[in-house]
Design a protein that fits this description.
Strands 2-1-3-4-5 form a five-stranded parallel beta sheet, with helices on both faces. Helix content is about 45%, strand content about 15%. It is built from five helices and five strands, in the order E-H-E-H-E-H-E-H-E-H. With about 140 residues, it is of the alpha/beta class. Helix 2 runs parallel beside helix 3. Strand 3, helix 3 and strand 4 form a beta-alpha-beta unit. The protein is globular and about 35 Å long. It has one domain: Response regulator (Rossmann fold), CATH 3.40.50.
Length: about 140
Amino acid sequence: MIYNDPGPEWKGRKLLIVEDDEAGYQYFESLLRKTGIEIIWIRNGVDFINYIEKETPPADVILMDILIPLKNGIDATRAVKERFPEIPVIITTAYASKEVRERSYLAGCDAYLTKPILPHTLLKTLSEYLEKKEHLASRRGK
């Protein structure tokens, strides 16, 4: 018997990918395309800040690279958490160090993933935060 897992179904959900590297974005997009999640790609920190000021709420979850132009991912994380503390921010970086990790968590990130990120790690992490948010929303509705 062949087992074919269709993967998670996130239709109606929105993901912001804040990533300046096109190859990095393409990697995330190719892994997540089959989930049905709406993906918004933002390439720098200033465009990200402008986006979150216009969209309410801007996303269900955010993948945030640290080394993005114009405003780094740590400052961008701090900015989004000030406005929307309930939105999970997952830091993604190829420059893993204890100091960067600590600064990321102090800025308010919810998770920290080092590149290269394996497909199952990305899906598991996103599932954890999307399901937690869905559970909290359903509890508020009761």
